[in-house]
Design a protein that fits this description.
Length: 442
């Protein structure tokens, strides 16, 4: 996700590493800057009496092109076009540099001005537009009955399901199992287990047990902070207390920040290197060379040769340590429809098709990802099975939740970066309290 706080800017190339690679939106986001909202817009024109305009980071390609040149998402959209006799007209936008407006900035403007019908949206954008009442409630779609609870929880704002994704993206710890076996270490379940493993590696000459970058360390924090909130049977009440200000996010997040501080102090992560390292760039080389036994990444990185899909050792992907054991951290994009969209009924019909189990089966098989449908399993590679097993058990925490007034992923990411840059845990907690107070005023 793009994210900006206190005037900070990050280019779209940097943001690419932050989020969901398989979800196209996250490969195109950028942070806020100046520029015209229509810069870099591309529109595919079609001749059809029934047209649905879709704002998306992807462009329509030649239907005669080989399948490898088309995204899994476009395959399902073509299915909808054929079934419904509707043409999806793509409006695309790419931020060229930090001075351009981000994909999300343009999305906000286009939704608020009712410029399109269907939108592929980032989690924080979903949250903003949902709170403003700019997105339709999709709860009455037939496909909703097949959705996993995690999907509905993440994209429900004020009781309305305002967006639905085509995949669920999970983050986990990528483990060099051979190195763990070499030192007779069990895979860590709790934060205490994890720190003990790091200590053993450090004592045996592993200079930096955990490879880190400046984006994904917050996953450790989320896993520890929200393990009970999302898995203790009292989720709605706890979130309501946070949204009303009766409870503080800092009370949940403090243990995760203290855990990260201990890792920094003990030399288990290189804070200076992590602070300036982009996702994958800072840690991939050492992990593949077996100099670092642990890194963190998203599900799709295990399937991708340019990330961790081709290792020379036995790799496993597990959840982050928590009081409830290995904990996946989950996030997702979503399709939304403008509340006053001109072709809203056709747009709803399109969503019924592309989010049907039939279409999601195609999407899941093509991208090898976790489906939002509880009826569709993923034929994942063996390395991903530990992470997938937890999700199939409905054990997870959300890294982004549109139902929380204080935006999570981006805000906590930036506060973690302050910790890496030398801020104390107390200073970080004060910043989180400030962010919560700010959210309560909206």
């Amino acid at each position: 996700m793009k994210y900006m706080a206190k005037g900070k800017k990050f280019s779209w190339k940097r943001i690419m590493g932050v989020c969901l690679t398989a979800a196209m939106l996250f490969m195109m986001t950028a942070c806020k800057g100046s520029g015209k909202s229509d810069v870099n817009l591309a529109i595919s024109k079609e001749e059809n009496d029934r047209i649905v305009n879709m704002y998306s980071p992807m462009e329509k390609v030649d239907p005669n092109a080989e399948n490898v040149a088309r995204s899994a998402s476009e395959k399902t959209l073509r299915m909808a076009e054929e079934k419904l006799g509707v043409t999806v007209q793509y409006i695309t936008y790419t931020a060229e540099d930090y001075q351009d407006k981000s994909y999300d900035d343009v999305a906000l403007a286009r939704v608020r001005n009712n410029m399109d019908d269907l939108y592929l949206l980032n989690p924080d954008t979903i949250q903003i537009l949902g709170e403003e009442g700019e997105l339709m409630d999709l709860s009455d779609l037939e496909c909703v009955k097949n959705l996993r609870d995690v999907v509905k929880t993440a994209n429900t704002v004020n009781g309305k399901l305002v967006a639905i994704p085509q995949e669920v993206v999970a983050y986990g710890l990528f483990i060099n199992k051979d190195m763990f076996d070499e030192y007779n270490l069990e895979l860590p379940e709790t934060p205490e287990d994890f720190l003990k493993c790091c200590k053993v590696f450090k004592e045996n000459g592993i200079e930096t047990p955990v490879g880190a970058n400046r984006w994904w360390l917050e996953s450790f924090v989320f896993a520890q902070a929200y393990a009970d909130l999302y898995n203790g049977g009292n989720t709605e009440a706890e979130i309501e207390a946070l949204n009303s200000g009766k409870r503080k996010y800092s009370g949940y997040l403090r243990p995760g920040f203290e855990f990260l501080q201990e890792m920094i102090d003990s030399g288990y992560i290189d804070a200076k290197k992590a602070y300036v390292s982009e996702a994958l760039e800072g840690e991939r080389e050492d992990f593949l060379a077996q100099k670092t036994p642990i890194v963190m990444a998203y599900w799709g990185a295990a399937n991708t040769d340019t990330a961790y899909g081709n290792t020379d050792f036995n790799m496993l992907v597990i959840g982050f340590p928590s009081s409830r054991g290995q904990m996946p951290v989950v996030s997702m994009t979503g399709y939304g429809i403008g509340i006053d969209a001109e072709h809203r009924e056709d747009a709803k019909d399109i969503l019924e098709v592309i989010l049907s189990d039939e279409a999601l089966q195609i999407y899941t098989e093509t991208n090898k990802v976790i489906s939002p449908s509880k009826n569709i399993g993923v034929d994942c590679i063996p390395a991903l099975k530990p992470l997938n097993d937890r999700i199939e058990e409905n054990v997870y925490v959300l890294g982004a939740n549109a139902g929380m007034k204080m935006e999570q992923w981006g805000n906590i990411c930036l506060v973690v970066r302050e910790l890496l840059n030398g801020s104390t845990v107390e200073e970080c907690m004060r910043e989180i309290d400030r962010l919560q107070e700010e959210s309560l005023k909206k």
